[in-house]
């Protein structure tokens, strides 16, 4: 990023999707090598409008629609990255990332390694993920654990507009591949003051959302507001809950988690992915390895279930963790 | 056609090299594409005004009437669907009005013993083969009752992840041959979907393994906001068949008699061991992508204008009236019957109960694993607790 | 399976690959709906010879080569399963399963669910996995965690010839999709007496490999022999190690694991997959949730690292857990 | 051709339906395929016996000599590779002897500013563009020194997962245009690999986005044990280009002058903004799949017999000698020079140190994550401990 004559200061109140759009706009303006592409990101500005107006402003060479083929979207991005561009691909929904998994697992994370850094891939792959807004089948998947298990790629999941902007700008400026999952539920549901200009939030640092001495709740993305609500309810009952927003799964900020669990002695982990082998299990494993002597209760995972995410409006919230379920888990570790 | 409102072609040329573009650019590509859509290399039976251009291709009168009935059923679903959506009685669904000939004419060439792999937009095809309207409504109402696939049909649930149905159709088709039947599998895909790798793999597998498949590629001009000409440099998608050594046919997708004719040929070839066929139906998505989409973001009224005159229902209607196969009176009876059928189905859909919480864990495996049993218990405990809490609140 | 006139009895001494071949042969003979297909499985009998002779014996209709395209291999298998066949697909190496992940994640595990059991997919996908035999790049991957995180599919990984046969026959006869990963390292390195005929080992039951009171070592597939060696060394030092061969990851035999950990109070988990978010983390999470009060030491994971599996003969064993590393972990939990 | 030893076509017909197969069966498909391989629809410059059939396509004499030199370098690598493998001085590698014209003639049309995406079998192409022999030997010795890609070349590491290179080449090509250069990207794939979805997606993307790509499809008759005719029903893979609206060319893949000619045309078209081309080089895998493979399991001697007479090195050699561009003496000098170069490279490869344990965690990210730092520490601790244990044992 090149410094502007008078760096803008102050904040602007915006939604998460606006903050993402702002970050993309800033990146495009600051760095000619940044290119944005995907399905419907051009004239239409994306199905969630995250790239709204960017083609008109930065041109069809910088922001363009591709044919409908996710493997080639990622594969092409890899090639662009090899050749010195900074590709920022949008996958329309995280559940449609699957056709691209071969390119991702076979190459995206391996390129630096297998060329001993002759090549590296400063690619960002953005995808809306998660539930809570009554989307059709396969539009609410949370596949972050697959990416977290893929060596050589980073995984970032913001939970606030400011973080979305700051983390996305860091991701675009990161020399290595970054997955950037955006909780659909949060796109427009919250507004906050977001610093203007080239604001960065470092990748790899968790955020302490609330402080408390009794229970640590670890979560990210769309689950942070859920955990916050549960923490607020617990506070009413005199239970001090420390909510940690992980922000980045890879690299994970283990220190913040361990420090908190060492203090509280109780850990609840919340994600909306299926139960078996989700990223929640990794968090639990790290705690079990590094903080077991502090634990005063079993670790509890509050997650989706081992079934596909239900597209049924009436029962969607049975699957997706809600504040009640998290509150129950908090009680459970307190009562142990 | 107003080029300035259409999304511009995604051609990432650096300004410095712009002058190198001696090759046909995108204006030319677009012109070529547009020309190809109107060209005479499509099979056509009825002209847009309903006059017969290929007498030899005309199906039996009864078949023509049945095609009209099915197109009307489909259109009725689509039209009522819009109303129900606006009334909050149906969820977001992808309309297909204007594409009835492409869906009905093709599916009508099957029997109930054949397989149908529809996409989210192919309600018309599914209804033609007998998928109950009530189940279809339930599906777009986000009810699990839309997932109860009838036992006497081989109509698969609507495919959401694009192109995945194509290789699966190959497998179903092969399985039929292995089991000694003459049944075939038909799969639908869109112009956008035909860019996916699964499209290629499936056509190649079907050719190599001689699978009795009929692949319908509905070229309706758009993949959400991306026009076909930006999806590919090819102007005739049926020619992709050549690359697999299988027959490819391009047909007027707004002419139900033509789509029926070419599909029946393909189905017969497949049944008799002749292998797969690719059929490109050239049609148009006159409607938005879904009922919640606003196409004015990416296309102009002018883009769609020409297509009203090509409407498939009107076209066949004119023919049937002209040919004396239908009268205004007999049509009125038909429409009344269709409306009655639909309202009965709607009432049935209305009667489906809401799903219960633990239902979301049903049907994952034949036998629930210990993990699923435990998770079910969690759900039951939570919701029983909530219900009683709710009850006591209400009682208090 | 239909009963034969005189059911064969006794055992035969064979390698794991021979046992797999035997199971496939028996399944083909017993059930007309069983079909085997994949790359090079026909005349050539597979790159590891697991399907050797089966095409000659059962015909080209039952055992056949496909074009080179994994997504279509799995997709076609799904279609065959819908139409009443029992497809048994071979993916040449687990690292080449990636192009098929869309078919797997989008459909294989969801079909029963989204048709309320109108359709179910009795499909088996076999793939050689793991390292230890100096294969080229991407030929030693261990992607089992991805499948374990996919609702609706089972995951089976045998560690002995007899188990390979018995579990494979169970998998083929299971009404639902089963991934069957075969440790390349074990294909020919051990022989044992394998029951003849239609021998079955139930899916979902772990195997107690050795008994001991001090430490539980949980592992599967290629890591079982590694753990056994470490256990033998520990026994010399008077440490009683209970080695549990999980056999099936989904469904996991939690009871056997918890019962053992409740007894020993110490858990070491061994896999050769990358560290972050591997299936080892799920095992650790389950223990941390259900047996924490019994733990006398942190859980220790002995795994591959967060880098691609190295194709470098000279240092391959640095990455892939070896008995020394497991023994060290056993000491570590003992000394805690 | 002895049909009984070739793998039979994978045609899963149920016996009950066998008689339905009125369509061309696989015997016919095979005959059609075989005929197509010899047909005159391939571009050819030299006949198999070395006589010139297209005078107008002959490159400059210096170019012809350079092509010969590069083919000889490639063949030398392949031949010495076999010996080194048997001596245990090289790991398992995929030989390419007999395919030199297909690899060298194509790659020679590039400059060092262009991109090359080779598969595991394309050592000949990579060497032509300048990949150091020593690095290539190191790669097949399973040494990380084979992963040190030269900074002055845009030759990518050999692609192992099949077809993945194709979409990546599109990206590199587009990036060059975006950056205002005239550089192109060339990617290789096999007949087998062309069945993968990535092949289709890449060709379609390249067409739609007008990427300066040259796609080489080496049809060498086999994908391990599966013959091309079982891989697809198509007999001419270059026709797949039509489905993307891009040019497709079929060329005699054992004729270096022809492969060079058509590739240079394609490269020039791409450089000047004309977009991508698909080139099918018709050649043959006379060697086993890898040096460890035993092809007698799936094909007979007779299968490969005809191809010796088409050997690309002999063919060009005869032409150069006949045309007086080379003498036996000048050739001997060339061969000596090539042998010297190779042995020097071998010595260099021998000098590469073995990797150290912690190296396996190098180059995962620009900055190792805390997790990787910890894992590195684990490795160092273990191996330092082991080393000292070893040392003390040795000292004792
Ligand atoms: C694999 C995948 N990628 C993206 C989507 C999102 N999506 C839904 S419809 C659509 C456009 C499809 O266009 P086309 O194939 O032409 O079918 P049409 O909608 O015109 O019927 C897209 C991109 C999806 N459903 N699946
Ligand atoms: C995605 C993937 N699937 C399977 C393999 C295993 N494999 C290696 S080479 C090969 C055959 C390739 O045939 P072809 O593309 O014709 O290339 P050739 O070996 O003839 O050069 C296979 C199946 C692989 N490397 N990658
Ligand atoms: Mg469309
Ligand atoms: Mg080949």
Automatic annotation (TrEMBL), chains A, C:
<dbReference type="GO" id="GO:0016491">
    <property type="term" value="F:oxidoreductase activity"/>
</dbReference>
<dbReference type="InterPro" id="IPR005475">
    <property type="entry name" value="Transketolase-like_Pyr-bd"/>
</dbReference>
<dbReference type="InterPro" id="IPR009014">
    <property type="entry name" value="Transketo_C/PFOR_II"/>
</dbReference>
<protein>
    <submittedName>
        <fullName>Alpha-ketoacid dehydrogenase subunit beta</fullName>
    </submittedName>
</protein>
<keyword id="KW-0560">Oxidoreductase</keyword>
<dbReference type="Pfam" id="PF02779">
    <property type="entry name" value="Transket_pyr"/>
</dbReference>
<comment type="subunit">
    <text>Heterotetramer of two alpha and two beta chains. Directly associated with ODBA in the E1 complex.</text>
</comment>
<keyword id="KW-0786">Thiamine pyrophosphate</keyword>
<dbReference type="InterPro" id="IPR033248">
    <property type="entry name" value="Transketolase_C"/>
</dbReference>
<dbReference type="InterPro" id="IPR029061">
    <property type="entry name" value="THDP-binding"/>
</dbReference>
<dbReference type="Pfam" id="PF02780">
    <property type="entry name" value="Transketolase_C"/>
</dbReference>
<feature type="domain" description="Transketolase-like pyrimidine-binding">
    <location>
        <begin position="14"/>
        <end position="189"/>
    </location>
</feature>
From TrEMBL, chains B, D:
<feature type="region of interest" description="Disordered">
    <location>
        <begin position="368"/>
        <end position="396"/>
    </location>
</feature>
<dbReference type="InterPro" id="IPR029061">
    <property type="entry name" value="THDP-binding"/>
</dbReference>
<comment type="subunit">
    <text>Heterodimer of an alpha and a beta chain.</text>
</comment>
<protein>
    <recommendedName>
        <fullName>Pyruvate dehydrogenase E1 component subunit alpha</fullName>
        <ecNumber>1.2.4.1</ecNumber>
    </recommendedName>
</protein>
<comment type="function">
    <text>The pyruvate dehydrogenase complex catalyzes the overall conversion of pyruvate to acetyl-CoA and CO(2). It contains multiple copies of three enzymatic components: pyruvate dehydrogenase (E1), dihydrolipoamide acetyltransferase (E2) and lipoamide dehydrogenase (E3).</text>
</comment>
<feature type="compositionally biased region" description="Polar residues">
    <location>
        <begin position="386"/>
        <end position="396"/>
    </location>
</feature>
<feature type="region of interest" description="Disordered">
    <location>
        <begin position="1"/>
        <end position="24"/>
    </location>
</feature>
<keyword id="KW-0560">Oxidoreductase</keyword>
<dbReference type="Pfam" id="PF00676">
    <property type="entry name" value="E1_dh"/>
</dbReference>
<dbReference type="GO" id="GO:0009083">
    <property type="term" value="P:branched-chain amino acid catabolic process"/>
</dbReference>
<keyword id="KW-0786">Thiamine pyrophosphate</keyword>
<dbReference type="GO" id="GO:0004739">
    <property type="term" value="F:pyruvate dehydrogenase (acetyl-transferring) activity"/>
</dbReference>
<keyword id="KW-0670">Pyruvate</keyword>
<dbReference type="InterPro" id="IPR001017">
    <property type="entry name" value="DH_E1"/>
</dbReference>
<dbReference type="InterPro" id="IPR017596">
    <property type="entry name" value="PdhA/BkdA"/>
</dbReference>
<feature type="domain" description="Dehydrogenase E1 component">
    <location>
        <begin position="69"/>
        <end position="357"/>
    </location>
</feature>
<dbReference type="InterPro" id="IPR050771">
    <property type="entry name" value="Alpha-ketoacid_DH_E1_comp"/>
</dbReference>
<feature type="compositionally biased region" description="Basic and acidic residues">
    <location>
        <begin position="375"/>
        <end position="385"/>
    </location>
</feature>
